[in-house]
Specification:
- The chain is of the alpha/beta class.
- It is built from 17 helices and 27 strands.
- Strands 4-3-2-1-5-8-10 form a seven-stranded parallel β-sheet, sandwiched between helices. It has a five-stranded mixed β-sheet with strand order 11-17-22-26-27.
- Strand 6 and strand 7 form a beta hairpin.
- Helix 3 runs parallel beside helix 4.
- The chain is globular and about 75 Å long.
- The structure holds coenzyme A.
């Protein structure tokens, strides 16, 4: 009890302790929840688990908002229990993906910087309960978040009620690394005073109206580790291509060896590509990203990255043990911010980020599909990739040139779904090479992409598509009736090789 009371320093809130079951019982059918959690870090855990237990004997559904994907089994269990009506703005969970694609659950796939604006403007919500994981509550009543900030501050400000989950297993040294900034209503804002990656512009915790705090529960459940795979041979080759490109930028005088603040997306490929910087000549690097995966900590350990700003820390099991066990070494090199600040279009443009995200597929003109397998089945969501791609100094997309053992070409005549248009994509990289699309007209892009990025087993097929397209003419030549022929062939024959 003593330890619990020490975590609630605001004396007026010390009498709000309840069990997770009791707090979950306040949540009714049809309500909207704002859960803390961003890329499997800092998720609300106790209340979602209690809701899942309740669903064994009671039928209800809720709408669930979060920062991004929820780990610790939360998205999985919520989906399997069938208690989610609508989910936004991101998920990355196979069980939830299945429900979404079967039409049993609604999913609003939304730019991660913009969900806060919808909440402020009342487009979504009202939020009945914000459920926020915390390290502690300060004497002046601020919630100190844990391993992510995400949308937690906007949830707390706009929710009718707040439930705080104090997690005793999260590293206490996290207190002080958060920087909570509230930009205010659109149309009434001052410029956000952030001009450097390590600028602190807000408070170390989330201010909360004590009247709204309905309950405080305690948990000791750890974040679940990330599911990223270690860099493989193809990812390492992609990293080499990216380094070659960056060296050319340095040689041209557009960048120095310090490069520019780096953003790297979720997933194994983006992590592997960032990892490739370790043995490079690039130094004194800064990271301004939405999630910090293993590679950023390897780069800090190697003395390559001097500061990293993000909205969450999502690590593999091994890395989590090392970093959280020795957090004192890292804490003065890190800031965690709300996702609308990490992903803010104006700040991304102001800081001039180099942005590296992963595509499922891209086409011969540089349009990118990050979300929909064969144009219809949701993978994870757009996440922050659109926030960064549209506004970065360099918008880079990486993907292996083939998927599923070569039966799918990740470079296609026409993407089957567009997340990032050709206007927002500067460089595309596969293990075959990279194509710098900047300043190129559509007809200049195609030969470069075919020769540099397409897998050799698909090159001839792509050349013949483009030759036929050229006969039709146009600024962006296509054979529309064949534009999705590769996807159709895959659906019918299990391969994009048209001769098989
Ligand atoms: N068609 C069908 N499936 C494809 C594919 C394609 N063109 N390209 C890749 N895949 C499959 C892979 O086979 C793999 O499947 P598996 O899970 O069954 O093995 C899966 O997609 C993941 O691909 P992988 O190559 O392992 O990449 P990843 O883990 O780096 O994830 C994305 C890639 C695109 C799914 C992921 O980066 C994502 O969701 N991006 C969108 C959100 C985003 O960019 N956020 C960035 C800001 S943080």
């Amino acid at each position: 009890m003593e330890e619990k009371l020490q975590r609630i320093k605001a004396i007026e809130l010390q009498n709000r302790m309840v069990t997770a079951e009791e707090a979950a019982s306040w949540i009714k059918d049809g309500m909207t929840l704002g859960l803390s959690g961003f890329t499997r870090a800092g998720d609300a855990k106790a209340i979602p688990y209690a809701l899942v237990r309740r669903a064994e004997t009671e039928q209800f559904k809720v709408d669930v908002l979060s920062g991004a994907s929820l780990g610790s089994g939360v998205d999985k269990l919520l989906a399997e229990a069938g208690i989610v009506n609508k989910r936004a703005p991101f998920q990355a969970e196979p069980a939830m993906r299945k429900k979404i694609n079967e039409g049993e659950m609604l999913f609003v796939d939304h730019h991660l910087s913009q969900t806060a604006e919808w909440i402020r403007a009342g487009v979504i919500g009202p939020i009945d309960f914000a459920v926020i994981e915390a390290l502690s509550i300060t004497e002046d009543g601020m919630i100190i978040p844990t391993t992510s900030v995400g949308n937690s501050s906007v949830f707390v400000e706009h929710a009718k009620n707040v439930i705080i989950e104090i997690n005793l297993s999260q590293p206490q040294l996290f207190e002080g690394i958060h920087d909570i900034y509230e930009p205010g209503m659109q149309g009434q804002r001052s410029p956000i005073p952030l001009t450097k990656v390590d600028d602190r512009i807000g408070t170390i915790g989330i201010p909360v109206d004590p009247e709204k705090v309905r309950g405080i529960v305690f948990t000791a459940q750890e974040d679940s580790p990330s599911t990223i795979l270690q860099p493989d041979a193809e990812s390492k080759v992609m990293a080499e291509h990216l380094l070659d490109f960056l060296r050319k930028e340095v040689a041209s005088g557009r960048l120095s060896n310090r490069l520019a603040p780096l953003q790297s997306g979720i997933g194994s490929v983006a992590n592997a590509v960032l990892h490739g910087l370790i043995d490079s000549e690039f130094d004194n690097l800064e990271v301004y990203s939405e999630v910090l995966q293993d590679a950023v900590f390897d780069l800090i350990d190697a003395g390559k990255v001097k500061f990293a700003s993000a909205s969450s820390i999502t690590l593999s099991e091994e890395k989590m043990k090392k970093v959280f066990g020795d957090f004192g070494t890292y804490r003065d090199k890190l800031i965690l911010r709300p996702q609308e600040i990490t992903n803010h279009p104006g700040l991304i443009r102001r800081l001039g980020l180099i942005s590296i995200n992963t595509a499922l597929e891209f086409d011969i003109y540089g349009n990118v599909n990050s979300t929909h397998v064969s144009g219809t089945k949701m993978m994870n969501g757009i996440g922050g990739s659109g926030d960064f791609a549209r506004n970065a100094r360099l918008s880079i997309f990486v993907t292996k040139s083939t998927a599923k053992g070569g039966s799918i070409s990740s470079v296609v005549p026409f993407v089957s779904h567009v997340d990032h248009t050709e206007h927002d994509v500067d460089i595309v990289v596969t293990e075959q090479g990279y194509a710098d699309l900047r300043g190129l007209a559509p007809r200049e892009r195609v030969p470069l992409i075919i020769e540099r990025c397409v897998h050799p087993t698909y090159r001839e097929q792509m050349r013949s598509y483009y030759e036929e397209a050229l006969l039709r003419g146009g600024q962006t030549p296509h054979v529309l009736e064949k534009a999705f022929s590769w996807h159709n062939h895959l659906a019918a024959n299990g391969t994009m090789h048209l001769s098989e």
